[in-house]
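dumping this here before i forget
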Amino acid sequence: MSEFRFAYPFILILLLLPPLIWFAPRFSQFIPQSVSLRYSDIRLMSNTPINWRVRLRRLPDILRLLAWCLLVLILARPQTGNAREIIRGQGVDIVLAVDISNSMAALDFEPLNRLESAKMVITEFISGREFDRIGLIVFARDAFHHVPLTLDYEVLIQQLNRIELVGDITDSLGHPLLLDGTAVGLGIASSANMLRSSGSPSQIIILLTDGDNNAGLDPIEAAEIANTLGMRIYTIGIGREGEVPYPDGAGSVTLIESFLDENLLQDVAQIADGQYYRAQDLDDLQVIYNQIDSLERSDVEIQVIVRWRDQVIGLMIVAFGMLLVERVLRQTIFEVIP
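structure:
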């Protein structure tokens, strides 16, 4: 970022000197004078043609005035510099683990389903961070590294918005991959694996799911490993209790039973020194991510260093050029005979 300043701005007050000198004689006419001067009658010369020398007679004075202003600016030392920010301390490394199992298509967060609601709120969460590296894991029956830890939030949000339900993922022939399930343990393990080599003193996993663990690793064992590595886990259970509306794929909506193992998510959060939250609507979800956002803030000090450089050479050349031209004009074209 480019910066500009005057090293000695108080010198700029000298720019007021020429106007004061100019207006001083005009104020003197109000002061009584005892001296008088007789002069000839010049009315006979009123019709004399005015040539270009007369019209430009003030040019040397204007050049001298401009040169004076430039010299004052030079004395004030105009400087430009490039600001460089140095961040001291480290941000938080965060992995967002998002459940993409088919049950996330439930419509209890109308008008959006659970997954689309989560994506919208998580986007706001990412946009509110500044110096934290954030990665993205998606999981169903298996877990996948979707975006590695990054500070490029724009790319991260783009990839987040491209997440699909596992039932919508197909192979090259268009056949569904049949990966439905909820592997909470694998989601935790994959998140811990992404954070393992981060080097940040503060490592966070935010896991969002709407079901109970029915595939993969034991979530308790995965949480214990994450805790041993110094990682904290926040778990979020999303969805209402009981029967919830669910699209049946034929253009209609049916009711299905919503299953959420809250005890498991509470145990995982407790083991990994985090907290468990329950979101039953969009407002709950927004409040939860806002709370996590306020809890996990890093102490980052930004120091701005500016390398200042004087910008006077050009002004000096122009100013002395004006003075030289002014002297030449006074001694030649605009020479005045005493």
